[in-house]
Amino acid sequence: xxxxxxxxxxxxxxxxxxxxxxxxxxxxxxxxxxxxxxxxxxxxxxxxxxxxxxxxxxxxxxxxxxxxxxxxxxxxxxxxxxxxxxxxxxxxxxxxxxxxxxxxxxxxxxxxxxxx
Length: 116
Prior knowledge:
Radius of gyration: 19 Å
Distance between the termini: 67 Å
Strand order of the largest sheet: 1-2-5-6
Structural class: mainly beta
């Protein structure tokens, strides 16, 4: 017998998603439908998104350790919630967007960016 795609009686229906209003919306942050999170670093709030190894196709330089992030390496992308991104520009247009190794992003408070 073929499967019915109709909802069953008495089943839970998904309600409208509630937003608390505390966080900026996706259009303003550039996070998009994939989501992400918001973290504070110093006096600046950042939008942070994890990048899977499959999605990492370019080589980047981590500002925490000054080493390369090779293609296929899972890492974190972070950008400040000020300036062009906050005004609605795409996340790819953000001048402050940086790719970090995940441990380097976690340890950023204990060490500053490496200077060449």
